Amino acid sequence: MTAPERISRLFGLLCIALAWMTRIGAQRTETHAPRRDKRGRAVVSQARIGWQILSQAARWGGDVFWDYLRLLGMPFPTASTSVSRSVRC
């Protein structure tokens, strides 16, 4: 690796993009409940929903893109339940 600082900047940028997509997906699932499978899990993740919305806004959104850019600076909504769930890999 000849320039490790460039890799760290790229990784940081990817982390910001993932957080942005997840934030947009979280905002969308507040107003429109995602489709669920028979186990009760969402069929599409919040990050995927956010990616779809953000990619459309970047291509054709106009002012909608700037609204989503402002959304990046806002905190995530609080959880609707008091029970926390662990993440499994």
SSE blueprint:
Blueprint: H1 4-31, H2 46-61, H3 63-72
Helix pairs in contact: 1-2, 1-3, 2-3
Summarize the structure.
This protein has helices spanning 4-31, 46-61, 63-72. It has 89 residues and is mainly alpha-helical.
Descriptive terms for the model:
89 residues, mainly alpha, 3 helices
What is the structural class? Answer: mainly alpha
Distance between the termini: 28 Å
Low-confidence segments, given as residue ranges, are none
Task: Quickly count the helices.
Answer: 3
List SSEs in N-to-C order.
Answer: HHH
The radius of gyration is 16 Å
Estimate the mean pLDDT confidence: 80
Explained architecture:
This protein is mainly alpha-helical. It has three helices and no strands. It has one domain (8-72). The protein is 61% helix and 0% strand.
